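Hello again,

I reread your note about wanting to compare the complex against the isolated chains. To keep things tidy I'm splitting this into two emails, and this first one only covers the full assembly. Below are the input lines as submitted, including protein chains and any nucleic acid or small-molecule components. They are followed by the predicted structure of everything together. The single-chain runs will come separately.
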Amino acid sequence: MSVIFLLIIFSLLLAIGFLLAFIWSVRDGQFEDDYTPSVRILFEDENTAPKESTKEDV
Amino acid sequence: MENQIVTEQLVKCYHCGDECKDTVIIKDDLNFCCEGCRLVYEILNENNLCRYYQMNEKPGISPGRPSHQEQFAYLDQPEILSGMLQFSEGGTQAVQLFIPQIHCSSCIWLLEHLNKLQEGIIRSRVDFVKRSLLIYFKEQDTSLRKVVELLASLGYMPVLQMDLLESGKVPAKSKEEIYKIGIAGFCFGNIMLFSFPEYFSLNSFQEPGFNHVFNYVNLGLSLPVFFYCSKGFFRTALNGLKQRFLNIDVPIALGILVMFLRSIVEIVWGYGSGYLDTMAGLVFFMLIGRSFQNKTYQTLSFERNYKSFFPVAVLCRREGREVGVQVSDLKKGDRILIRNEELIPADALLVKGNACIDYSFVTGESRLINKQAGELIYAGGKHKGGIIELEIVKAVSQSYLTQLWNQDAFNSEKLSDKFQQLVNRISHYFTIVLVLIALAGLSWWYYHADPAKAWNAFTAVLIIACPCALAISSPFTLGNVLRIFGRKKFYLKNASTIEKLANADTLVFDKTGTLTRNKQVDVNFSGIALSALQTIHLASLLRQSAHPISKQLFDYLAVEGKVPVAGFQEITGKGIKGVVDGVEWVMGSAEFLGLEDTEIDQLTTRTYLRVNGNLLGFFSLGNKYRDGLRSMIDHFKSKNYRMVVLTGDNEGEESRLRDLFGANTHLRFRQSPADKLQAVQELQQQGSNVLMIGDGLNDAGALRQSDIGISISDDVNNFSPACDAILDAGSFRLLPSFLKAARASKEIILISFCVAILYNIVGLWFALQGTLSPVFAAILMPLSSITIISLTTGLSGWASRRIA
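Full-complex prediction:
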């Protein structure tokens, strides 16, 4: 039963690791724009190869 | 009432949705309003990007004037480049551009697929809320100039100034908020996990050292919560105490402190395992509640800036024509025409005309400032005089206008914010009552010789009582209602206006422009016919004024040419005069021209015309009342609203109005602006709570005097800062529903107060008996907050759903 001490230590370390990852992501600016990604996921991938006709250089 | 439905076959542009008025350009069986739109379509079509049109209807923006070759040449200069580029390394460059035209998902889609349209662009990313675009491109294959030219050709002209991204939010602050929530949540979850043995009383199965280990781990986890995450609460509470004011954070801070100390005592002395889970939970949920509140305000301001309807329109010169454009659709470089008494909606340069600007809206001083061509005029000023032409320099900021509106010099009454006061008073008494109850519990148990239970009860009371629900019910309800109203084109100044709406018991209506429609009016002229030249002169005179009658006559005359008018004067509600080509023109009511009102025509308004001293005749305008007016009036009668109609017009309409309003309504004719103001004052002296609706032009004083003034907007720029709300003419018939919803929101707030108090009573019941278990406390508080939030949001949404 005393193995539970070891387990607690490991689980805490793991959890703290995730917390640090969270802090890293916030600092990196992942949560700055929380609206546009919600629109972006609705776009579909498609084959957008340019048409055969003359493609003007804009 | 007549209901004329005129259907025309409108041809709309496939790209931008504008009407194709004169020229229709057809390509691939699709209609376009101009070459620019067609070009954009072709570009997209050739590059297989027509998905742009599938995601939204008519998502495009007309690119406007085609850019000259050299318009963006300056972007090739290295000094400019270094100022604008975000990043330049190893052949890759990045720039962040502010593009205010971004307004839908199609825009996002297209702007993130720019790499399909230009070789050198690597990738691009949109931030919709900030309206910004971050583009990475290869220095070799393209340049900033080419990128900007591409954007301009698509209709997404960026605003190119050094520091332009609207800094509404402070990113650093919101990051700290996220950190706090993240850490609090982390600790809360883990503390609860490590409290499982305690919850399920597994202590007997373990070695004696175990619960100590768990307790100290919990203590360790609670440290960041207490010292970092709760910083905000302690700071606000201390500030409040310094000013001898018990704000809402004081009981919260007190609860956190007591829980922490009691838990330390219990753990270190071995009495128990403390209330650390409750403490962490409280902090976590309070932080979420605050963040949610802030988000609601941000969403609200976002909506009010970009989605909600600031129903002010200005005359804009587009493609050689003068059209009415919503203030929110104005861009930098647009040429706008401002008439007498109209508001300058954005910072602009004076191009033509003499401007006399009244900045009382902004500074509080009513001094008229003269401006010459080439000078900059700031947003918020009101122009007095003949028509002027301006070029917009900075995009319209609805938030700035709303801000001005709220802090304008007319805002002398602070006591209108009753709800905020109520909350403050409640939080003040809440703490005092709470401490008294806690002391009562303490002394009670001491008296019954149970000191352990005494301290138990004392601290439990301080822990369980939560004022948070009280604090959030009002802003959530009002914020939700404000948002819903805005969607329905009823734009309120701020949240406390809702309460004013609910309190009104007397409705005062202006007639011209409020009860009657501004468009599609029958006009007839009796008298000496005007020559073509005279018609042009008359139109030029009428053009200077923003009065509904001037507009109606101008539309009726429908001439293209115009000549300058000197010495233009408008006497509000009476008439206009000016000198055209050396001849004096006077136009207005019979009284204004010094005539006797001999025949009072039953159904029309007469406007007389005198040129160079000769009376030429008069225009008679048929009054068309707005749709839905009768049912609206009947509704108000059934709800026992008192109604009054004030009009500057003569008694010609009396029988018509009597027919609509009934015998009990007070009708007053020939009211000058001062008369209207007096009428409102009289009503108030009789104890009425007055709601007034007018067009804001000739009843500004009365609007300001009323307890709540609503300015009705019919595609015009007659926004008067004296009003508390702007209502779009199309939503006029929804007025009964709006008032109903306002009253309902008052009830909703009271209901949520009661629910919050109920929760507190339940909690106190257990706390005073000393039987408050940690689990119970941990569940009760978040439960109360969540209940209040869902209750207020749900009920206010339901009450407003009936606004059809």
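For quick reference: The interface with chain A takes residues 43, 45-49, 51, 105, 108-109, 112-113, 116-118, 126-130, 149-150, 153, 171, 175, 178-179, 182-183, 186, 190, 194, 206-207, 210, 213, 217 of chain B (CB under 8 Å).

B.
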